[in-house]
Specification:
By secondary structure, this protein is mainly α. Helix content is 65%, strand content 8%. It is built from seven helices and three strands. Helix 2 runs antiparallel to helix 3 and helix 3 packs across helix 5. The protein is elongated and about 65 Å long.
Length: 158
Amino acid sequence: MSENPVSLAAQPHYAGFWRRFIAAVLDQIILLVGRAFIYGAIGLIIYAMLFVFDARSQIEMVFRIYAGILALVDFWITWIYFAVMESSSLQGSLGKLALGIRVSNMDLKPVTFEQATVRYFSKIISSLTIGVGYLLCAYSSKKQALHDFVGKTVLVVR
């Protein structure tokens, strides 16, 4: 008995481990370039302030503050980048889009900003498992990583 061709066409093609991995590498390259400009601008402002406020004798403390600011900015930029891009009409970060991947909810509809935020922060759990959370996508039926299970999302190739 042959299967109905319409039902085969309706089956989504989920993004596998390697496609997702390459998309993640592309996203990190994009974020690295973006961060370099932002960090450079913040560094120039702080450097100028050292002279304006004649705080060169406090340079060690200033650089500790600078490192703290960069950590907060990095956290914020990365979260906003992924949450905004994945919840937008594009349904994916630039790395995902380059590989034809879209982030969807379990009904294959666009995710909300809240869902994208839960998915992003759940990546911390995937990382804490020494990468096992990411490897789950190689073995789950819908190729979901741990953060996809938590965020109730799937990555579909379109």
